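Session log. Operator J.P. requested a structure for one protein chain; no other inputs attached. Running the standard single-chain path with token output.
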Amino acid sequence: MGKKGSLMSVRHDIKVFDATLRDGGLVNNFGFSDEFVKDLYEANVNAGVDYMEFGYKADCDMFAKSDFGKWKFTDEEDLRAIVGNNDTDLKISVMADVGRTNLKRDILPKSESVIDMVRVATYINTIPAAINMAEYCHELGYETTINIMAISNASEGDLRQALELISESNVQAVYIVDSYGAVYPERMREIADLYVEHTEAAGKLTGIHAHNNQQLAFANTIEALSRGASYLDATVSSLGRGAGNCPIELLLAFLQNPKYNVVSILRFIEKHIPKLKADGLVWGYDIQYLLTGRFNQHPSSAIEFTKNKRSDYTRFYSELLDKE
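Structure written below.
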């Protein structure tokens, strides 16, 4: 595959995807105020962002509603309280995890919902179940993607087989998800080429969702973009699980398309991000996340390290070595 576009060109296939509520909700159990959510929605509309992911469609039989904020479940009435009928160009998305969503109970027909897209999150070993979920949502009238998590742990053979299966489905796009923030740009280029090879042949698109464990989320996003990825995930001020994600303000400032305007995002950051930090919410790059990314391990141990306010990085390094 070759490079797609240049720093001076506009690619109209590009869609900027704000995942702040969904990935950021993993930091505070989705405890965002209605004011925060409404302001973020309006900021995204004014910035020309293409999609906004409000949260998960989690199964309330598995996750108690009393333990989480409303965007863990993204009920229709809660969504409409923020967006009304969403008479804007911004499309609304939710995420459904394989094995953690009751589709038939909790996903309404598209004609009854303001949701536009359902993204199905899966690991490489549950691709058939993910395709079944995506096809069900497609039949209900939704746009769909399949997001393959922990891509740094997937063998090329398994990945090729997964992409071949997805290529035969009605899925609109397939996502590279660097869940552990372990992928370097050179490897991201190879992964993106593999994805685009399959998606282009099938008339589908490729997406990228990067984590910032090694401060490479933005670099990997624009690397995948340069190889043909079209759906670009980002979050405000990198707000997301652990080390966070590609900052949307960086991405909007980078893209050449005049439809995007970073000013409303900057206003949102001014109003809300310092308060989140003052209230004790912790996310973003730190040494513990660097180490789990370097060892290609799930960031759960680094998240626990952070919660315990540890600073013994050398000992933590040794603990991760023992897991190798």
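Operator note: The first strand starts at residue 15 and ends at 18.
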